[in-house]
Amino acid sequence: MDSCLRFLRWLAIAFILVLAGSMATGAQPPSFSAAPAAPAWVTATDGVYYDKVRVTWAAVAGATYYKYATRMWRPPNTTVYWWETLTDTTHDFTFTGPGDMYYWKIAACNADGCSSYESEDLGWRAIHAPTGLQASDAQFTDKVHLTWNESDDATAYVVYRSLTSSNPELLHWGNADTSYDDTSAAIGTTYYYWVKACTDACSVVSASNAGSRGLAAPAAPQASDGTYPDKIAVSWSAVNGASYYELWRSSTEGGAKTKVSSPAGTSYNDTYNLLMRGVPYYYWVKACNAYLCSDFSPYDTGYLSVAPTSTPTATVVFSPTPTRTATLESSPTPTATPTRTATTPAGATSTRTPTQTAAGTRTPTATRRPNMTPRASLPLLLHLR
Fold first, then answer.
1. Where do you find CATH 2.60.40.10 in the chain?
2. 382 vs 114, residue with greater confidence
3. CB 162 within 8 A of CB 192
4. Is residue 48 predicted with pLDDT exceeding 60?
5. What is the pLDDT of residue 118?
6. Which fold is adopted by the domain 134-212?
7. 187 close to 172: Cβ distance less than 8 angstroms
8. What angle is formed at CA 149 by the lines to CA 128 and CA 141, rounded to 5 degrees?
9. Alpha carbons 381 and 383: distance in angstroms, whole number
10. What per-residue confidence (pLDDT) applies to 324?
11. Which CATH number describes the domain made up of 222-302?
12. Rounded distance, CA 216 to CA 126, Å?
């Protein structure tokens, strides 16, 4: 106990002597001031500027300058302490890359030292959105193909899609490639696409572009070749995604096409009344839905049948065959001189008596009497056709 008291008295005497000596020589007493406190807050801009990160912090009483430190957002999260001194409470940093994210820290300093780096905030330079986005318009039947221009030092691109021209939804987080094939698109549906460029941070979305996955063209149709005299029957195969079809016709392979019909099914009977018999007609088909139609199918030809050549025939109808009857009257054969009588219009009687002449010629003698009564009748039937 006594030794402790003696030590304290000695220390007090030494302090008094030093103080007295300093006063005698005019020297200032030693300062016991400390380093300033750390800034109460720090803020850094989040992609507001393309050429810088602006960092702002709270002023600290007693601080005559400030120092800063940075820590990477991604691993290995290394903290770098910079020896540059700052005299204001706002500073623009331009050394980081577009989209590179860092935590920013500030220490307040004076002649007695610097505070600790307590507050920090995450900030980064903006990265430009990609330009030149193009989406294929029904060019491919199995995908929508997207391409765009490279942006800054982007290490990845993010693709967004929507059925409308607003409200983009995340579709694909990719790599540094500047193209993408959307194979999930529904056939014939129009989509709107956007792209972001990314490093640690990402850009805003690009301008949108619309695209669609196309309908496949139907295979060549089948048209009837002279099967029917009044129509050409055309049929074709169904196409996935089609809700109806367009049938086209032409009189020549390379001539102007005329749309015949838009059936929902896969067949149609072309009964156009100006089709000529035996003349070939060319047919094409398109597959369609509410958004678009496919390209033309290959063509097929068809034609009406040609009417056969025939000899005209006529039917002759005969009436019943008429019958005519005649009566021949004669007397019995005479023994000497036969006599034939006939009725004359005047009612006289004529008797024909053959006479034998010297030369052997028979000379008939006729006697006519009225109303000769027939003794015998010989019917004679004459059938005329």
1. 42-123, 134-212, 222-302
2. 114
3. yes
4. yes
5. 92
6. Immunoglobulin-like (2.60.40)
7. no
8. 130
9. 6
10. 55
11. 2.60.40.10
12. 43
Burial of 194 (0-12, 13-18, 19+ CB in 10 A): buried
**326 contacts 248 by C-beta, under 8 angstroms:** no
Comparison of pLDDT for 282 and 317, the residue scoring more:
282
Note the pTM of the prediction, 2 decimals.
Answer: 0.61
Q: Report the chain's C-alpha Rg in angstroms.
A: 64
- Could you tell me which residue, 338 or 67, shows the higher pLDDT? 67
Give CA–CA dist 202/121, Å, rounded: 18
CATH of domain 42-123: 2.60.40.10
122 token code pair: 């995450």
